[in-house]
Write a structure and sequence with these properties.
Elements (H helix, E strand, L loop, with lengths): L9 H6 L6 H13 L2 H8 L10 H13 L10 H14 L9 H8 L7 H29 L5 H13 L13 H12 L14 H6 L9 E6 L5 H15 L4 E5 L4 H13 L3 H6 L4 H15 L3 E4 L6 H15 L3 E5 L12 H19 L2 E7 L20 H7 L2 E6 L13 E9 L5 E8 L4 E4 L4
Parallel strand pairs: 1-5, 1-6, 2-3, 2-4, 4-5
Antiparallel strand pairs: 6-7, 7-8, 8-9
């Protein structure tokens, strides 16, 4: 038989597909009857009984699990299990013919008390192998379908690959006593660059206990033309260029060339209009050339694909975490992301914000997402924005760990005595203080400059 996948028939493909470990499933079912306590122990450790492929043995496991809630462990023997299995079969809850009392008695002597964990691992390994083989077939079917969609199908495949080992079934519970040493150690250990990402603004770093933290969803909100993208570029420069922290930017509004212009102008102090007009003088160009090596070697990636979906973003982040060591993801901006199907825009935005938070937590990175504010502040005499001004603010405010609102008085009053200044209003800070931090708005250089009071 040839091994060329293009000429495999259904029989050959089935022959190469693992179907489980029958011996391990049989012994595990026997051990569950002989040692009922292992059922709860293994489940708490992440074992999924659905991995037991043979329904007869799987239902033995479920029977022991149910009987354990009403009987003492010593009373759970093959007789009680046989009775419950027959009842389930009669009710239609069990399709296969259940093992008889005699067969269960013979099975019982196959138990390996004290070794349930070892046999469970063998069952899980065989089940994962079987799912991987089935996924391979599914991938081939998707790839040869005329309706194949690279974005949707590849993202779906990536999700299936991630779910092969069913991590969601594992318990993450811990005893308080085991957590206390880490809490007390943190109380006397200032945050380092290993667990915090500097923002580039000293007072903001101080407010955030050293900078952005892993697993955080940070929302930067502002009205149009306030400088959201400029703020994002500043955070990216502080992370990647100044501190060498792997950073990725998804720019849904600006091209990657324009975003790179903001990065270079802010880092080198080149007037944006001079660069765009091609009239940068030799002195400034020499200053830029001196910084080129540091900027070129900075771990920063910029993606300007305007069609950014949640599955596509997750797949890209997963790949960048693995291959690039990604620590910070910046999305410019939330309302331009492709919304999932939903009954309303508000529900769709809720799904986006919740998913972004889950992605940040799952991969242990900081996600900074820009968001537009509604016109609420413009209808007030005091134009200072509030967290409630976020469009579809309920879900965004709820999911975000930090909400920072960008405000410039001179955007509304040209003769303002605070012309050239901007406020970073920390309107929400989960587990920390809120405050307003003033920075200098040097928008001609595409940057906001620290005006630290400390």
């Amino acid at each position: 038989m040839t091994t060329d996948i293009d000429v495999w028939g259904p029989d050959e493909a089935a022959a190469l597909t693992p179907t489980g470990n029958a011996e391990a499933e049989r012994i595990l079912a026997a051990t569950a009857m002989a040692e009922p306590g292992c059922v709860d122990d293994l489940s708490a450790g992440g074992f999924d009984p659905a991995d037991i492929g043979d329904e007869r043995y799987r239902m033995v496991w479920y029977a022991v699990e149910e009987l354990a809630s009403t009987l003492e462990a010593s009373a759970i023997r093959w007789q009680a299990v046989a009775h419950l299995l027959q009842q389930w079969h009669a009710e239609g809850r069990m399709v296969a013919r259940p093992l008889t009392e005699t067969e269960l008695a013979e099975l019982y002597v196959s138990a390996h008390p004290g070794a349930a964990d070892w046999w469970a691992r063998r069952v899980t390994t065989a089940a994962v192998a079987a799912r991987a083989a089935a996924l391979g077939t599914n991938i081939r079917v998707r790839a040869t379908n005329p309706a194949f969609d690279p974005d949707a199908d590849v993202a779906a495949i990536q999700t299936e690959v991630d779910n092969l080992v069913r991590p969601a079934s594992q318990s993450h519970a811990a005893d308080l006593g085991d957590l206390l040493p880490g809490v007390l150690e943190a109380a006397v250990t200032p945050p380092s660059i290993e667990d915090r990402v500097p923002t580039g603004v000293i007072d903001l770093d101080q407010t955030l206990s050293g900078g952005w933290a892993p697993g955080q969803l940070v929302v930067i909100g502002a009205r149009p033309a306030m400088g959201k993208s400029t703020v994002a570029a500043g955070f990216a420069r502080a992370a990647a260029i100044t501190n060498g922290i792997p950073t990725a930017i998804w720019s849904l509004e600006m091209s990657k060339h324009d975003f790179a212009v903001s990065i270079v102008c802010g880092e080198v102090k080149i007037p944006v209009h001079h660069l765009k007009q091609g009239v940068v003088d030799n002195t400034v160009l020499a200053r830029a050339s001196a910084k080129v090596p540091a900027m070129a070697s900075a771990p920063m990636k910029i993606d300007d694909n305007a069609y950014l979906t949640l599955p596509g973003l997750r797949a890209q982040i997963r790949n960048l975490v693995r291959t690039f060591g990604l620590k910070v993801a910046i999305i410019d901006y939330l309302q331009l992301m492709q919304a999932p199907p939903a009954e309303s825009r508000q529900v769709a935005v809720s799904i986006i914000s919740r998913t972004l938070k889950l992605i940040a937590k799952e991969f242990g990175i900081t996600i900074i997402v820009l968001a537009q504010l509604n016109r609420g502040n413009e209808q007030r005499s005091d134009k200072t924005p509030m967290v409630s001004d976020l469009r579809e603010s309920g879900s965004i405010e709820q999911d975000a760990d930090i909400v920072i609102l960008l405000h410039r008085e001179d955007a509304y009053e040209k003769e303002s005595p605070r012309a050239g200044e901007a406020d970073l209003i920390v309107g929400k800070h989960r587990g920390g203080p809120t405050r307003t931090i003033t920075v200098a708005a040097q928008l001609h250089y595409a940057r906001f400059v620290d005006m630290a009071e400390t």
